[in-house]
Every structure is written in structure tokens, then in C-alpha cells.
TrEMBL record:
ATP binds at K12, Q13, Q14, L15, R16, R139, I140, G141, Q142, G143, G144, G145, H146, Y147. This is 5-formyltetrahydrofolate cyclo-ligase. One of its GO terms (biological process) is folic acid-containing compound biosynthetic process. InterPro entries: FTHF_cligase (IPR002698), FTHF_cligase-like_sf (IPR024185), NagB/RpiA_transferase-like (IPR037171). Its EC number is 6.3.3.2. Belongs to the 5-formyltetrahydrofolate cyclo-ligase family. Substrate binds at E65. Keywords: ATP-binding, Magnesium, Metal-binding, Nucleotide-binding. Pfam families: 5-FTHF_cyc-lig (PF01812).
Amino acid sequence: MTDLSADLPLQKQQLREKLRFRRRHFAANLDGIAQLAAFRALPAPLAGLIADHAVVGAYAAWGDEPDVIPMFAAIGEAGALALPHHAARIETMDFRRWKPGETLTKGPWGTRQPVDDAPSALPDIIFCPLVGFDRHGGRIGQGGGHYDRYFAAHPAALRIGVAWSVQEVDAVPRESTDIALDAVLTEQEFIVCGDRL
């Protein structure tokens, strides 16, 4: 883990800007067939893992984030899919059940989320979008800390980051509040980062 220093937030912000640029250009240059094929089927290592968990947490892609919803279509139809939900522009988030075809509303942070009266859920395994990652479980998110706080409050949930392969870096600068990932899924591979899988 990188030592906490006065310029660590600045380092993280500069890395976040660089990786957003990289992600944006990579996604924009994917041909139509590659876009349609990416994240559409569960990789073999994940199929069995997901079958062992009652509720899967995913996300509604925003901008050039990988769209994982098609990968979880069958889970969603069975009622075992949940998406992040923000009640207001506050630090905490929760998860609400959602099925493909149900309405998604614009949340207070601008992301699409289930309606306010959707049933609450506690996912056993969570797939979260990344801005950047390393192979040791380090992650860079949007910078709000919502997932880190949720992970800290629900340590038993498995944490799997989702990103394009070009978002990988050698080492993510980490603070004591950054919660490590158990694995990362890209369009090219499934990377196990910790010892919980």
C-alpha cells in the first residue's frame, strides 16, 4: 500500500483524469462487433461463483463504462439483481432490486438508478465500475468514496471491479479508506486479486 501523503489526493485525481481519457478513447474506437461482444456473457469462472450467491449487485453504465447489464439478464429476470441507489446527494448509497425493462431514474449524482420505492437489497457479490485498477486489488473510482464506504459497511460481499483492459496501471495509490477488490473483470480476462476467490 502506498503511504498516505499530502499529495496523494492530487496523485489520484491526476491518475483519474489520465485513465478517463484512456477509457473514453478506447471505448470510442471499439468497432461495433467488439462492443456488442464485450461483457455479454458470463466468463466460465464467474458462472459458478454467481450461482452460489443469492443477490448480485451490478450497475447501470454511465458514459463509456462497460455495460454489464446484458451479462446479468437471466439473474435480473429471476429477481436477484440489484443496482446502486442514492436517496440524495449524500455520502451513503444502498442497493435496490431491479429487473431488465423496469424504469431507471436519474439519481442525485446523475447516474441511472432504480426508482425510490424499489425493494432494498444486500448483494452477496458486487460488480462495480472502475476508472482504474491494478492486479493487487487497487481501484480508482469516480472519487466520491461511495463504494468504499459500502464495502467497509458490508465486508462479507465479494467485490469485483469492471473495466476495459486499458484502464490497468502498475499500482494504484491507496489510502487507508480504500477497500481492495477481490477480482477484476475486463473484456479480455478475469483477474483474481485476493484470497477470497
